[in-house]
Amino acid sequence: VRRELNLPDIAGQKIVGQVSGLIPFKGHDVLIEAAARVLQAEPNTLFLCVGFSRGHAEYEAKLKARLAELNLSDRVHFRGYAGDIADVWQLIDVFAHPSKFDSLPLSVLEAMAAGKPSVMSAVGGIPEVVEDGVNGLLVPINEPQPLADGLLRLLREKEIGRASCRER
User: pLDDT at position 168, please?
Assistant: First the structure.
Protein backbone atom coordinates (compact mmCIF):
# COMPACT_ATOMS: atom_id res chain seq x y z
CA VAL A 1 0.00 0.00 0.00
CA ARG A 2 2.88 2.35 0.83
CA ARG A 3 4.23 1.85 -2.71
CA GLU A 4 0.80 2.28 -4.27
CA LEU A 5 0.44 5.58 -2.42
CA ASN A 6 3.99 6.56 -3.43
CA LEU A 7 5.09 7.21 0.15
CA PRO A 8 8.70 7.18 1.35
CA ASP A 9 9.65 4.23 3.55
CA ILE A 10 11.77 5.62 6.39
CA ALA A 11 12.61 3.45 9.39
CA GLY A 12 10.79 4.47 12.55
CA GLN A 13 8.66 7.06 10.80
CA LYS A 14 5.20 7.65 12.28
CA ILE A 15 2.24 8.41 10.06
CA VAL A 16 -0.49 10.85 11.03
CA GLY A 17 -3.44 10.18 8.77
CA GLN A 18 -6.67 11.82 7.80
CA VAL A 19 -9.28 9.84 5.86
CA SER A 20 -11.88 12.08 4.25
CA GLY A 21 -12.95 13.61 0.99
CA LEU A 22 -10.88 16.59 -0.12
CA ILE A 23 -13.51 19.21 0.66
CA PRO A 24 -13.03 22.52 2.51
CA PHE A 25 -15.00 21.79 5.68
CA LYS A 26 -12.89 18.70 6.48
CA GLY A 27 -10.09 20.95 7.79
CA HIS A 28 -7.11 19.89 5.69
CA ASP A 29 -5.88 23.48 5.92
CA VAL A 30 -5.92 23.25 9.72
CA LEU A 31 -4.02 19.96 9.56
CA ILE A 32 -1.34 21.54 7.37
CA GLU A 33 -0.77 24.31 9.90
CA ALA A 34 -0.66 21.76 12.73
CA ALA A 35 1.72 19.58 10.70
CA ALA A 36 4.22 22.44 10.49
CA ARG A 37 4.26 22.61 14.29
CA VAL A 38 4.40 18.84 14.80
CA LEU A 39 7.27 18.44 12.33
CA GLN A 40 9.37 21.00 14.18
CA ALA A 41 9.16 18.83 17.29
CA GLU A 42 8.91 15.36 15.70
CA PRO A 43 10.65 15.51 12.31
CA ASN A 44 10.33 11.76 11.70
CA THR A 45 6.60 12.10 11.07
CA LEU A 46 4.72 11.89 7.78
CA PHE A 47 1.21 13.23 7.16
CA LEU A 48 -1.09 11.30 4.86
CA CYS A 49 -4.48 12.61 3.77
CA VAL A 50 -6.42 9.92 1.94
CA GLY A 51 -9.55 10.82 0.04
CA PHE A 52 -10.68 11.79 -3.38
CA SER A 53 -11.08 15.33 -4.61
CA ARG A 54 -14.74 16.17 -4.90
CA GLY A 55 -14.59 18.99 -7.40
CA HIS A 56 -12.96 21.61 -5.20
CA ALA A 57 -9.98 22.36 -7.44
CA GLU A 58 -9.47 25.84 -5.94
CA TYR A 59 -9.29 24.37 -2.42
CA GLU A 60 -6.83 21.70 -3.53
CA ALA A 61 -4.65 24.34 -5.24
CA LYS A 62 -4.73 26.48 -2.08
CA LEU A 63 -3.61 23.51 0.03
CA LYS A 64 -0.75 22.68 -2.34
CA ALA A 65 0.36 26.32 -2.41
CA ARG A 66 0.41 26.46 1.39
CA LEU A 67 2.44 23.24 1.54
CA ALA A 68 4.96 24.79 -0.85
CA GLU A 69 5.13 28.00 1.24
CA LEU A 70 5.86 25.95 4.36
CA ASN A 71 8.28 23.65 2.49
CA LEU A 72 6.18 20.64 3.49
CA SER A 73 5.31 19.17 0.09
CA ASP A 74 7.47 16.13 0.81
CA ARG A 75 6.05 15.66 4.35
CA VAL A 76 2.30 16.07 3.80
CA HIS A 77 0.78 13.89 1.10
CA PHE A 78 -2.69 13.98 -0.44
CA ARG A 79 -3.68 10.74 -2.11
CA GLY A 80 -6.75 9.09 -3.53
CA TYR A 81 -6.91 5.35 -2.96
CA ALA A 82 -9.33 3.04 -4.72
CA GLY A 83 -8.29 -0.08 -2.81
CA ASP A 84 -9.57 -1.42 0.48
CA ILE A 85 -9.47 1.41 3.03
CA ALA A 86 -8.52 -1.14 5.71
CA ASP A 87 -5.10 -1.27 4.03
CA VAL A 88 -4.68 2.47 4.64
CA TRP A 89 -5.71 2.16 8.29
CA GLN A 90 -2.82 -0.27 8.79
CA LEU A 91 -0.37 2.49 7.81
CA ILE A 92 -1.78 5.14 10.15
CA ASP A 93 -0.27 5.49 13.63
CA VAL A 94 -2.39 8.46 14.75
CA PHE A 95 -5.67 9.59 13.19
CA ALA A 96 -6.47 13.29 12.77
CA HIS A 97 -9.90 14.63 11.93
CA PRO A 98 -9.84 18.45 12.15
CA SER A 99 -13.25 18.95 10.57
CA LYS A 100 -14.89 22.36 10.81
CA PHE A 101 -18.38 20.99 10.25
CA ASP A 102 -19.53 17.39 10.37
CA SER A 103 -22.20 15.07 11.64
CA LEU A 104 -20.60 11.75 12.59
CA PRO A 105 -18.07 10.80 9.90
CA LEU A 106 -17.56 7.16 9.05
CA SER A 107 -13.79 7.66 9.32
CA VAL A 108 -14.12 8.47 13.03
CA LEU A 109 -15.93 5.18 13.61
CA GLU A 110 -13.42 3.32 11.44
CA ALA A 111 -10.50 4.78 13.42
CA MET A 112 -12.13 3.70 16.67
CA ALA A 113 -12.82 0.22 15.30
CA ALA A 114 -9.19 -0.04 14.13
CA GLY A 115 -7.96 1.04 17.57
CA LYS A 116 -6.18 4.13 16.26
CA PRO A 117 -5.26 6.88 18.71
CA SER A 118 -7.20 9.89 17.47
CA VAL A 119 -7.40 13.67 17.67
CA MET A 120 -10.66 15.14 16.39
CA SER A 121 -12.53 18.42 16.33
CA ALA A 122 -15.30 18.67 18.88
CA VAL A 123 -17.92 19.21 16.20
CA GLY A 124 -21.29 17.75 15.30
CA GLY A 125 -21.89 14.22 16.55
CA ILE A 126 -18.23 13.47 17.27
CA PRO A 127 -18.43 14.42 20.98
CA GLU A 128 -21.38 12.05 21.32
CA VAL A 129 -19.16 9.02 20.61
CA VAL A 130 -15.75 10.34 21.68
CA GLU A 131 -15.09 11.05 25.33
CA ASP A 132 -12.12 13.39 25.51
CA GLY A 133 -9.10 11.62 26.95
CA VAL A 134 -10.86 8.26 27.10
CA ASN A 135 -11.33 7.04 23.54
CA GLY A 136 -9.88 10.03 21.69
CA LEU A 137 -8.76 13.60 22.14
CA LEU A 138 -11.16 16.42 21.26
CA VAL A 139 -9.86 19.81 20.18
CA PRO A 140 -11.53 23.12 19.29
CA ILE A 141 -12.65 23.70 15.72
CA ASN A 142 -10.28 25.49 13.32
CA GLU A 143 -7.38 25.82 15.78
CA PRO A 144 -4.05 24.34 14.61
CA GLN A 145 -2.15 24.65 17.91
CA PRO A 146 -4.45 22.44 20.04
CA LEU A 147 -4.54 19.95 17.15
CA ALA A 148 -0.72 19.91 17.01
CA ASP A 149 -0.52 19.55 20.79
CA GLY A 150 -2.89 16.56 20.71
CA LEU A 151 -1.01 14.92 17.86
CA LEU A 152 2.32 15.37 19.63
CA ARG A 153 0.88 13.95 22.81
CA LEU A 154 -0.29 10.79 21.04
CA LEU A 155 2.90 10.45 19.01
CA ARG A 156 5.10 10.71 22.12
CA GLU A 157 3.18 9.07 24.91
CA LYS A 158 2.37 5.52 23.90
CA GLU A 159 0.27 4.82 27.00
CA ILE A 160 -1.97 7.80 26.33
CA GLY A 161 -2.26 6.70 22.71
CA ARG A 162 -3.38 3.25 23.72
CA ALA A 163 -5.81 4.60 26.30
CA SER A 164 -7.28 7.04 23.80
CA CYS A 165 -8.64 4.26 21.62
CA ARG A 166 -10.41 2.23 24.33
CA GLU A 167 -14.07 1.53 23.79
CA ARG A 168 -16.55 3.57 25.80
Answer: 43
